[in-house]
Amino acid sequence: MTSHSKAVLPRKLCRILALNALAVCLAAPAPAVLAAEMETAAIPAAVEEAALPVGGGEEERASVVDGCTLGPRIVCPNLDLRHRNLRGLSLAGADLHGANLMRADLRKADLRGADLTGAILDGADLRTAFLQGARLSGARLRGANLEFARATGADFTGSDLTAANLEAIRADKINLAGASLEGANLQEAKMALSNLSGANMDGAKLRFAIFQDALMTGCRSCPTGW
């Protein structure tokens, strides 16, 4: 074998080895693909973890406050419940008169028949709350959100609902005598057979609201023609 043949043979061998190595590299999954596969494999676990009731950064729902176990028919007047998470909690028939519920989360809370006379609910979130038959005479609900709440037969006599949101509230036979609804949002509210005598509705939004057979004696800025 000549010296030229000896030189060519190693070069051919190197090329063959290089081609084989390239094929192996191309067949192997790229780092990005591997990362994507690992992320996809982790998705079920992540979803499962997200489904756990960890609160999502929200405050844990209150159950005992100042020695008072929150629940139906409790008697805890003047209780300080400011900023508390009370979402979905049943407080039906509870005596919470004079309680401070400023900015409390009461979404879907059951307050049917509860005594909230003179309570402070400024900025409270009462969306979709159940307030049928509840007593809130003299209560303060400035800027409170009662959108889609149910308040049939509730007593809001002399309450302060200035700038409150009562859009689409269902509140037939509600008593709002002497209440302040100045600047409140009452669009699509249903208040048939309600008592609005002496109420103040200056600047209130009343589009599509229903006040059929409501009592409006001495009401300020109440809609006419009902």
Question: Can you put this structure into words, describing what you see?
Answer:
The structure is a single chain. This protein has 226 residues and is an all-alpha fold. It has 2 domains: 3-51; 69-226, Pectate Lyase C-like (3 Solenoid). It has 2 helices and 2 strands. Strands 1-2 form a two-stranded antiparallel ribbon. The N and C termini lie far apart (116 Å).
What attributes characterize this protein structure?
single chain; 226 residues; mainly alpha; Pectate Lyase C-like; 2 domains; two-stranded antiparallel sheet; globular; disordered N terminus
- The number of distinct helices, counting runs of at least 4 residues, comes to 2
The CATH topology of the largest domain corresponds to: Pectate Lyase C-like
Tell me the quaternary state: single chain
Number of E-state strands: 2
Low-confidence stretches: 3-9, 22-28, 30-57
**Biggest beta sheet summary:** 2 strands, antiparallel
**Rounded Rg:** 33 Å
Helix-strand topology string: HHEE
Kindly report the average pLDDT value: 83
Give helix % range: 10-25%
Write the CATH architecture name of the largest domain. Answer: 3 Solenoid
Distance between the terminal alpha carbons, to the nearest Å? 116 Å
Structural classification: mainly alpha
Overall number of structural domains: 2
Strand content: under 5%
What would the principal axes of the Cα set say about the shape? globular
Strands of the largest sheet, in order across it? 1-2
Please write the CATH class name of the largest domain. Mainly Beta
CATH superfamily of the largest domain: E3 ubiquitin-protein ligase SopA
